[in-house]
Amino acid sequence: MTPTPRPAAGRDFPGQDAPGRDAAPDEAPRRQELAAFLRARRARLAPEQVGLPARRRRRTPGLRREDVAERAGISTAWYTYLEQGRAVRPSPEVLARLADALCLTDPDRAYLRVLAGHAPPPHGAPGGPGARLLQSLVDRLAAPAYVTDAATRVLAWNPPAREVFGDYAAWPPEERCLLRLLFTQPAFATALVDRDAYAARVVHTFRQRSDAHLTDPAVMALVGELARCSAEFRRLWESRELRRADTDTLLVDHPGGRLTFTMLMFQDLGATGIRFSAYLPADAHTERAMAAAGRAARPARGT
Fold first, then answer.
1. In the beta sheet, which residues pair with residue 266?
2. According to DSSP H, which parts of the chain are helical?
3. Can you tell me whether residue 275 is helix, strand or coil?
4. How distant is the alpha carbon of residue 82 from its chain centre?
5. What does the pLDDT look like over 175-227, one tens digit per residue?
6. Which of 46, 54, 85, 90 has its CA nearest to residue 72?
7. Which domains does the chain have, with CATH numbers?
8. What letter does residue 33 receive in the DSSP assignment?
């Protein structure tokens, strides 16, 4: 392999921060997550996957740092700074080359831009709809629906959602958070056929669709707490997987039989981080079962 030239005077490309330069303290979590994300994605690539010769078994899996650096056209030293969480800021062009070098998917590329500080501005407005308006929105739907914020706190839900996932009101508002419910409350969402898959999707969506885990001290504390008390959450979080699609199929064991739903999600509903999730009946049986449940829950006339 051709030796990669050393960076001159602490710089690798014009317009990029020199390593070691002082940076805002609140950027440290973002830099550390960028470093961990690059290491995780590098570990997934075998040399043969990118046209490099297979090597004898190494203690650590994946490509070497110099492999990634050469494929991206940057120095090994400068790439090492990124994986060490040093105060360097890659340009959008360098990020694109790193994404190609690591064979990143589109969601991975978008997350990489967020971590490097090159994400587009959020679409939502600073304020957004209030709790009463959000509740009115979900109440108008016959399908299960709920609204969460950037920290997965459940802000509004309708009776069909209670029918499928359980009664959110059974937990106090400070505990009414999807991440907390899924990984600390076994009684939540027990009707789901594959509760673990749903929990994984919530974690992957949370990481991809919001930077709260990098900027909000309360959310950062929640992530740390869940990583300590739940081995499954810790495994999912450390995998740094991201959500691959905006739709999913949800199977539910219901008194009316096995129900099938297709999820529809809207992000930044009015305010940044507000997420609307609805589960539409995927077949006639599910539609009939939900209609019957709705009629049973409706008070009789004259009562």
1. 276
2. 28-44, 65-72, 76-83, 92-101, 106-115, 131-139, 159-165, 178-184, 195-209, 212-215, 217-229, 231-239, 284-297
3. strand
4. 22
5. 999 999 999 999 999 999 999 999 999 999 898 877 788 888 888 999 999 99
6. 90
7. 25-115 (1.10.260.40), 131-297 (3.30.450.180)
8. H
